[in-house]
Amino acid sequence: MSSEDDQASQTSAGVFGRLTSYGDLGFSRFIRRAFLNSAGLDDEDLARPVVGIVNTTSDFTTCHREMPQLIEAVKRGVLEAGGIPFVFPVMSLGEILTNPTTMLFRNLMAMELEEQLTSQPMDSVVLLGGCDKTVPAELMAAASADLPAIQLVVGPMTVGDYQGERLGACTDCRRMWTEYRSGRVGEQEIAQINAELAPSAGTCMVMGTASTMACVVEAMGMSLPFAGTAPSVSSQRLRIAAATGRQAVELARSGRRPSEVMTGAAFRNAIIVLAAIAGSTNAVIHLTAIARRLGLDIGLDDFHDIAQQIPVLVNCKPAGANYLPDLHRDGGVPALLRALEDVLDLDVLTVTGKTLRDQLAAADGPQDYQDTIRTLDDPLQGPGALVTLYGSLAPDGAVIKAAAASPHLMVHEGVAHVFDSLEEVEATLDDESLQLTPEHVLIMRNIGPVGAGMPEAGSIPVPRYLARQGVRDMVRISDGRMSGTAYGTIVLHVSPEAAVGGPLALVRTGDRVRLDVPGRTVDLLVDEAELARRRAALALPSPPARGWRRLYATTVNQAAQGADLDFLR
Ligand code: FES
C-alpha cells in the first residue's frame, strides 16, 4: 500500500475502499488509480474522504429542477472541508409524471441506492431528494446500508397568486378542481388558476408528503436546521447545501451512522412532529418502513397514541390555512421543536454530532412569532389529527386524517357503492343513474400494495352532480393512499387489502357500512354467514407475469407494515 493509501485508510476507506474483485488486490488498487487519474484526480485528491452525492435530477421530476445548483453547492462544501465529492445518479421518482404511482417504485429506488451505497467507494453520502417517495426511499437505503448519511431536500415551492388569493400545490389544485366540477369556476378561470398552482421549482408547498417528510427528517436529526423548510429558490437553501457538504465530510471522518441517529427515541420525536403538523398519512407508511429497516418495530398504534396526546400546532394546508414558506418565515422546524420541547426527547443525537437540545440552542430565527406555529397551550386544533381504525372492514387497521375530515361525517352509517377499479371510477362516477347521495359510502378497492402498487386514488372525487348541489365531502374508504395534500373524510390503507382477500373484497354495493372515528371503528354491517358465502366464492387476482411488478406484488407486505418487500426488512 502506498503512503497515500495508508493515509486514506487511517481516516476512511476513501477511493480505495470496496475494491473491484480481480483476485489480485495490488492490481485492483493499481487499475483503480489509473481510472481515477483519468478523471483528473491526483494523489492529494485520492487521499481525501469520499462523499457520495445522490443525484435524483430528472426532467420527469419537475420538483427537482433546482437540484443541479444544489449539487454544485454541496460539492463546494465537500471540497472546502477537505473531502472529494462523487456525484452519482439514482432513479428519480417524480410524483406527477409516473404511472401508476411512484409508490410502486419506492422500494426499487431504495434497493438501487442501497446497492450503490454498498458497492461503490464512499465514506459518507448526501441524500438529495424532495419529491414524495425520494426521501423515504433514500432513508430506507441509508438505514439498510448504515453508511454515514445526511439528507438534503430541494425545498418547497413559492406560493402562487390568483386575483389576490394565494394558491398552492396541491391542496388548492384539488379544491379548485372541485369548484370547476361543480360549475362555480369556468374554463378560462381554471386555466389561469392552473398556471399559478406550481409557480416555481421545488416540492409542493402545503403540508403534503414531501413537506411532511422534510419536516420529520429534520426533527429526527438527519438533516441540518432549517433544511426542511427553506424555499427551493432561496439563497438560504444554497447555504444549507454547502453546509450539508461540509457536514458530510465530518460524517465521513467520524463514521457516525444512521442507526446512531435514527433511534427509537428519534422516531418518537418524528411522530410527535407528524402529529403537530397534521402531516401526510403517507408518512405513517414511510416511517414504518424506515424504522423496520433498522429493526425498530413501529406500528399503527404508535402513531395513533402519540396523535391523541399532541395537538396540531402548525397552521398549514390542508389542515390549516398557510404554506411552507410561512412556516419557514416563522422559524421553521427549530421553532416548532422549541414549541414542543416539553414532550420531545432532546437528548437524541443528530447528524451533526450534537444533541437536538444543543442544536436548538444554536439555531437562530424567530423565537416568539406565532402565526403559523402555535404553542401547546394555544394550538390550532386539539389532539387527534391522525386516527387509526379497526373493525370488521379493516382487521389489521386503517388510517384517517381526522384533522382534514368533516366533523359531521366522523360518525356515519351509509349504503356502500363499490368501485372495483380506477377505470370504473372514471367511467361511472359522474353517471347520475347511480343515484348516489351525500349519505352513500364510496368504496374504492383493489388499489392496495399488491393490487395496484397503492396509488393516491383513495380520495376519489365527489360525483359531479352532487358537487353541483354543494356537496364537498362524503365518506370514502379504500385500500389505497391519498396525497398528503388532499382532504376529506377518507379512510385509507385498509389492511389487509382486497387483492389478498381482505374484507374489503367482500363488500357489495347496497351493503351498509359504519364509520365511527371517535370509537376507532370501521365496520361492514353484513352477517358472518353471508360473508362466509362471499369469501368462498372469491377469486383473487393473479400477480403480473414478469419483472419488477411481479417481484413487487409477490413480496410486498401490507401498508400497516410499511409496504416494504418482505426480504428487505
Ligand atoms: Fe413533487 Fe408534490 S409533486 S412534491
Which structural category fits the helices and strands? alpha/beta
Q: In percent terms, what proportion of residues is strand?
A: 5-15%
Share of helical residues:
25-40%
What is the CATH class designation of the largest domain?
Answer: Alpha Beta
Features:
8-stranded mixed beta sheet, alpha/beta, 4-stranded parallel beta sheet, 569 residues, binds FE2/S2 (inorganic) cluster, single chain, 4 domains, 22 helices
Task: Give the SSE map.
Blueprint lengths: L2 H9 L13 H14 L4 H4 L3 E6 L11 H14 L3 E6 L13 H17 L4 E6 L4 H12 L3 E5 L6 E3 L2 E3 L3 H12 L4 H8 L14 H11 L15 H20 L3 H4 L2 H13 L5 H12 L6 H10 L1 E2 L11 H6 L2 H8 L16 H7 L18 E3 L2 E6 L2 E8 L9 E9 L2 H7 L12 E4 L4 H4 L11 H4 L7 E4 L11 E3 L19 E5 L4 E4 L3 H9 L10 H9 L14
Parallel strand pairs: 1-2, 1-3, 3-4, 11-12, 12-13, 13-14
Antiparallel strand pairs: 5-6, 7-8, 9-10, 10-14, 11-15, 15-16
Helix pairs in contact: 4-10, 5-6, 6-13, 7-8, 9-12, 12-14
Bound molecules: FE2/S2 (inorganic) cluster.
